[in-house]
């Protein structure tokens, strides 16, 4: 099947999740967050179409990457294609991060009417969720644009049926600024 992307894959990012990552920039987003840093990715008619098989071949050829990060745009407007890619990424022994303007709770509700949303969620290791809120923007938070956004351990959260915050030595500093309690449960 095809996926709409905003640009070519971007390898060697160190700001879109832990480790060294390749970013897949999806095209299309209707959240319309004031102050969005990537307005060129909003138009659902913009970007370009590419076959997921082609993207998978490119992913297989990547070297020295810890994982892949889906960003955009909002990848959850194309959950079926993203789920196919994320499954292939895991087969290549890389982890999957995803940025979305939806909250985790909103995505769970969408699963009731769109099975592909759960298919994609099940292939995500870490989700950075929620709209960008200009008033909550901070340079003191790592991997997030505004402090309302949460870095979520998706497998644990799906199992627990509530949000469990992703814990990592790389992002300890977040918890000095975020609204989290010690056990990693969002409050
Ligand atoms: S969800 Fe992300 S891409 Fe979409 S408008 Fe908000 S900040 Fe921009």
Structure characteristics:
single chain; 187 residues; alpha/beta; TIM Barrel; six-stranded mixed sheet; 25% helix; disordered C terminus; binds iron/sulfur cluster
Q: What order do the helices and strands come in, and which of them pair?
A:
Elements: E1 2-5, E2 10-13, E3 21-25, E4 48-51, H1 52-60, E5 67-71, H2 79-91, E6 95-99, H3 104-110, H4 115-121, E7 126-129, E8 150-153, H5 154-160, H6 174-177
Parallel strand pairs: 3-5, 5-6, 6-7
Antiparallel strand pairs: 1-4, 2-3, 7-8
Helix pairs in contact: 1-2, 2-4
The structure holds iron/sulfur cluster (SF4).
The site of iron/sulfur cluster has 13 residues, from loops.
How would you sum up this structure, described in words?
This protein has 187 residues and is an alpha/beta fold. The protein has one domain: Aldolase class I (TIM Barrel), CATH 3.20.20.70. It contains six helices and eight strands. A six-stranded mixed β-sheet has the order 2-3-5-6-7-8. It has a two-stranded antiparallel sheet with strand order 1-4. Helix 1 runs parallel beside helix 2 and helix 2 runs parallel beside helix 4. The protein is globular. The model is unreliable at 172-187 (pLDDT under 50). Residues 29, 31-33, 36, 38, 41, 72-74, 101, 131-132 line the site of iron/sulfur cluster. Iron/sulfur cluster (SF4) binds next to loops.
């Amino acid at each position: 099947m095809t996926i709409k992307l905003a640009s070519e894959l971007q390898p060697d990012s160190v700001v879109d999740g832990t480790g060294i990552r390749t970013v897949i920039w999806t095209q299309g987003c209707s959240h319309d967050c004031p102050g969005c840093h990537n307005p060129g990715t909003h138009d659902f008619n913009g970007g370009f179409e590419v076959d997921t098989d082609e993207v998978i071949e490119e992913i297989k050829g990547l070297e020295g990457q810890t994982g892949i990060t889906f960003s955009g745009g909002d990848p959850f407007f194309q959950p079926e294609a993203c789920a196919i890619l994320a499954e292939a990424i895991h087969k290549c022994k890389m982890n999957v991060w995803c940025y979305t303007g939806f909250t985790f709770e909103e995505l769970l509700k969408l699963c009731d009417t769109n099975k592909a949303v759960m298919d994609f969620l099940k292939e995500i290791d870490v989700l950075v969720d929620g709209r960008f809120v200009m008033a909550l923007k901070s340079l003191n938070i790592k991997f997030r644009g505004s402090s309302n956004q949460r870095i979520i351990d998706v497998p644990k959260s799906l199992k627990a049926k509530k949000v469990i915050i992703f814990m990592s030595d790389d992002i300890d500093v977040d918890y000095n600024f975020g609204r989290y309690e010690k056990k990693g449960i969002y409050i």
